[in-house]
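Each record in this resource describes a single protein on a pair of labelled lines. An example record follows, reproduced without changes.
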Amino acid sequence: MTRYIVVRVLMMFVTMLMLVTISYFAMSFATYEYYTELGFREYFSATWTSYKVYLWNIITQWEFGVTGTEETPPWDILLEYLGVSLKINLIAFAIYLPLGIVFGVICGIFRNSLFDRVFNFLALIINSIPIFILMFLFIFFLGFKLKFGHYQWVAGWGARNYILPVLALILAPIHRISRVIRSEVIETATSEHILLARTKGMTHTQAMWRHTVRQSFAGVLHDLPGTFLYALTGSIFVEIVYHIDGVAYLLVRSLLRISPVGGLYVFIEIEVVMVILMFYTMLSMVLNLLVDILLVIVDPRIRQQLIK
C-alpha cells in the first residue's frame, strides 16, 4: 500500500511538471506574432530562459511570480475568486450525490418499471442539451419568467443567487451517479451470495440492503472524482452565462482584454492562468488518489490484489 501511494505521488509530480512545461510554452507562443519582432529562435531562447527561472522559483521558493497588470501574487488572486466557485460546486455536490444514490437504488431494484423508464428518458433529454444552453433556458424560463431564483448574479441577493446555477450543475451528475448505482445494484442482485442470503431466510429487502446496496457504493466511489470534476468543469460555463465572479471570470479576464476601440484581443497573464491550471489538475489527481485509497480500505478484493 505504501509503495502504491509513493508511486502515485511521483506520477503526480511528473504529470504536474509536464503540464507546467507544455502550458507555459503554449501560452508564450500564442502571443509570439503579436507582441515581439524577434525571430523564432531568439524568442524560443528567451522563453526557455524565463521558463527555467519560473520553474526554479517554484521549486526552491514556491514563488509563482506576480501578474503583469496588478503586481499581485497569482495565488492570492485565485483565492479571491475561488471561494464562490467552490461554494457553488460543494452545494451542488451535497445535492446530486444523495439524490443520485437514491434514484440509482430505486431504478436498480425496480428496473424496467415506469419510474425507471421515465427517469432515464428525462435524463437522456437533459444530457443531450449542452450545459450553457441549459443555463440560458433556466435563466429565461425560471429566472426571468417565473421569478424562481434570479436571472443574474446580484450582490446582496444571498441564497437566491445559487438556485439556478446549482440546479444546472446537479442534473447531469444525478443521472451519472444513478446510472452507476443502477448497474451495480442489478449486477449484485443476481450474484450467488444474494441467492444464498435469500435461502438463509433473509427477506428480499434485507438481502438488497445488507449486500446489494452496500456493495454498489464501491462503484460510486470510483466514479465520484470524475463526476465532481465534470460538474466543476461545467461550472465554468455556468459562471460565464450567469455572470458569476468566480474562477471562470478570472480565467477569461486573464486570457482576453477589451480593446479601447472595441472588440477583444489576446492578452495572456501567464502567471494567473498557470496557477488555475495547476490548482485544478492537482485537485483532480489528489481526489483520484484519495478515492483509490478509500476503495482499498472498503473493498477487500482490491486490497488483496495490491498485496499480491
Notes: Residues 74-307 form a domain with the MetI-like fold fold (CATH 1.10.3720.10).
